[in-house]
Specification:
alpha/beta, 3-stranded parallel sheet
Length: 367
Amino acid sequence: MRRAAVAVAATAMAVSLAACGSAKESGGGTKSSDGAKKGDDLKIGLLLPENQTARYEKFDKPLIEAKVKELTNGKGQIVYANAKQDATTQNQQADTMITNKVDALIVDAVDSKAIAGSVKKAKDAGIPVVAFDRLAEGPIDSYVSFDNEEVGHVQGKALLQALGDKAKSGDIVMMNGAVTDPNAKLFKKGAHAELDGKVNIGKEYDTKEWKPENANANMEGALSALGKDKVIGVYSANDGMAGGIITALKAAGLAKLPPVTGQDAELAGVQRILSGEQYMSVYKSYPQEDAIAAEMAVKLAKGQDLGSLAPKKMDSPTTKGVPSNIVPVVSLTKDNVNDTVIKDKIYTVAEICTSAFKAACDTAGVK
């Protein structure tokens, strides 16, 4: 609330200065149609990529909405659209928001290249754009995400730890994310840096649209090609795909499931980790990332400097030196469920420890 109050005071001062001189003389910034800097009555467009991954609807949307309300004394609102993994649909959603004159856009791109045209349209309309979670192309104004290459390092290290001295006793399968997602390339890069030369990569896939059913089909193909008894581990770039992979492993009749990695700390993923079906996930503090994205959007809409909110500079293929904030990640195993998703109130113990997982929770000390 103190930050919100400071923002209000800064806005009031800016309006006063604008009344005494030109926009240039008063420090510039994003302007409303009458030339005055914007106050708290903001419309922030939020474009999320899909609804297959639980985080977007369960965490990101409500947390960003709540933070925008907090930062604008309850006056700001989120205009929301989910592209359901369709880049053309997302471009149409963005163009509609631009036409309806939102004050800023938060965009998690389905396709980082395909969104560039809409980002340019927003820029031309004087609407600042925050690239959220994925570094979209085009003239974006700021970017917030996790250390995506480090995600791959964390996953690769965990898989090596699980394999131990058996790391070269068979083949591993690498199930990467979608090629349209720039983060997937970074996850892959980090994982390869850890795994190359230390394991035998029998099969590797770039999974279309991150869909669990596509990962399931790929895994079935890998088991058929390599032989089910030769697969000693699976690098899965996220939890949704891990679910599809584990279904394929079970259907193949493996006596013991090989270690499978993941990411996103989805509820089903956490439960699989506790029950021993999945080895690990990567926990990313969505509340922290969402709060930063909301604050970036509000500040940019008001024409305020991002300052310490964007301490780093990142380069996209089209834009150099994008003001950025990179949030750290944590390896999630059954040993730190209490200190991650429960401590941060992502899930309650009751949500995780249903009757099917009660014994596993008790063994892991989840409480």
